[in-house]
Structures are given as C-alpha cells and as structure tokens.
Amino acid sequence: MVYRVLSRHIAGSQSATTSVVVAANDIKVGTILKEEDLKVSEVVGEPSKGVLRTTKEAIGRGVISNLYKNEPILDNRLAAVGSGGGLAATISPGMRACAVKVDDVVGLAGFVTPGQRVDVLITGNPPGNNAADGPKVRTLLQNIEVLSAGTDIQKDQEGKPKSVQVVNLLVTPEQAENLSLASNQTHIQLVLRNPLDTQIAQPPGTAMANLFTGEKTAPASKPASVRNASISHAPQRSERVYLVQVFNGTKRTDEKFVSSEDK
C-alpha cells in the first residue's frame, strides 16, 4: 500500500507540465517573429530560465540567434521590443557592424560564415616607406566575430552593376575607424582562426624584402629627417683614421679612432 501511494505521488509530480512558446519551424537570424512562426507546447517539469510563456511576448521581435523547430524560445535569443529585425538587431550595445569587401576566393570558398572568428590583415605601402622594401603587411585586428557574409551590388567604371563579396564584422567604434581607413588605403585579407583560441598574438609584421632576405621583422624605413640629411649643406670636414691592433695571445682585435679637422 505504501508502494502504491508513493508511486501515484511520483507519477503525479512527473506529469506536471508547463506551457512554453516554441518555434513552429526553423527561423533564421534577423527574422521578425509572426504568429505562424510560434506555437505553445507543454513541457514536463520546470522550464528553462528566461523561456517565454505566451506568444504575445515574442510576436514582432527580431531573432538574434538561429532558432530550430520545437526549440523553446528564450528571451535572450530575441532583440529588444521595438528594435526591429535584420542585421541591426544582432549588434550588441556599444558595438558596431563594419562592412569589409573581400576577394572572390574568400567569399566563394565559404569559410567566412556568421559566427566565425577571423583576424584582419592589411597590406600596402606605409607613408614614408622606402621603395626598396616593397609593400608591408601587418595584423590590424584579431579575434573578430563575423556577423554576416554575402554579396553587395556596386557599379564599375562604366556604370554597370557588379556583385562583390562583403563581410560584416562586429567591432568597437575605434576598430571601425581603423577598419574604414584600411579599407580605402590598403588591401584587406581575412584569416580564419579557431573560435576557442582567444589568445592575442604579437606578430611583428613583414615587408616584401623580408621574403627574400629571410628576416623576421619589417625593415625600418629611414625617417625623413635622416634621408634629407644627405642633401644638407654642412661644413665639410677632413677625417683622419687611426687603426690600433691589440694582440691578446692568439686573439687579435682592431680598434679605430677617428679625428676630424675643419678644412
């Protein structure tokens, strides 16, 4: 008798259900929820924290993370009331979405997809760069989230529309300024990284000349003041060099002493 009473009590507690709102079908990021996208389902036991209980709480709000059929809809998976949908609804407070044009290889290869993490490399000729060094490359940004990847329509020199690959990156306002300037003055390359790897590296950058000399750092260009020094009209001096050889056992060292006199 005790067993039957406990069994009925356990069965009664397990059968308690709660009404929650779930997705009626797969829903993509940026979608504005409508009544037909939602349905109410009964779940056994205590529902997850933040799950919506009525469809009124979800209708008209934008989806900021992909939802899948029969998945309970959480409040933090939707944009705030009145903020709309689309890409803007997925931007976190204090952040910005910055569009970057990439080449066809990056776009068509498909490795840059929403949610991936990338580093941004820039290649160009810095102001005051020594022409003999060639173009230089450096890592501008690291561990940047990709918001979206697709195509944009622009016009060529003849005014004809052409399709270009565009990637939207989630950046801070300061990073957006740097990225905007780099987009106009340099060539941008995105490199994929493991999303679990959050370490920020310190690459020194390199120049075209390093590819042939084997050096690991970018050769420093002479500042303008140094380059112009060769054309300054300083008084000429005559120099006299004294060479002193020092023998320490079998080891020989040479020491030079320079004296200069005005002509």
Structural class determined from secondary elements: alpha+beta
Classify the beta-strand content into a percent band. 35-45%
Quantity of strands, as a count: 10
Count of helical stretches? 5
**Main β-sheet description:** 6 strands, antiparallel
Number of domains: 2
Cα separation of the termini: 123 Å
- Write down the overall geometry: elongated
**What percent of residues adopt helix (DSSP H or I)?**
10-25%
Mean pLDDT: 77
Q: Nearest-angstrom radius of gyration? A: 33 Å
Sketch the topology as an H/E string, one letter per element.
Answer: HEEEHEEEHEEHHEE
- Stretches where pLDDT falls below 50 for ≥5 residues? 221-235
Task: Write the SSE topology.
Layout: H1 2-14, E1 17-23, E2 38-44, E3 96-102, H2 104-109, E4 117-124, E5 136-155, E6 161-171, H3 173-185, E7 187-193, E8 206-207, H4 210-213, H5 224-227, E9 237-248, E10 251-262
Antiparallel strand pairs: 1-2, 3-6, 4-5, 4-7, 5-6, 5-8, 9-10
Describe it for me?
By secondary structure, the protein is of the alpha+beta class. The protein folds into 2 domains: 2-90, Type Iii Antifreeze Protein Isoform Hplc 12; 96-213, no CATH class. It has helices at 2-14, 104-109, 173-185, 210-213, 224-227; strands at 17-23, 38-44, 96-102, 117-124, 136-155, 161-171, 187-193, 206-207, 237-248, 251-262. Strand 5 and strand 6 form a beta hairpin. The model is unreliable at 221-235 (pLDDT under 50).
Kindly summarize this structure in a few lines.
With 263 residues, the protein is of the alpha+beta class. Helix content is 15%, strand content 35%. A hairpin with a 5-residue loop joins strand 5 (136-155) and strand 6.
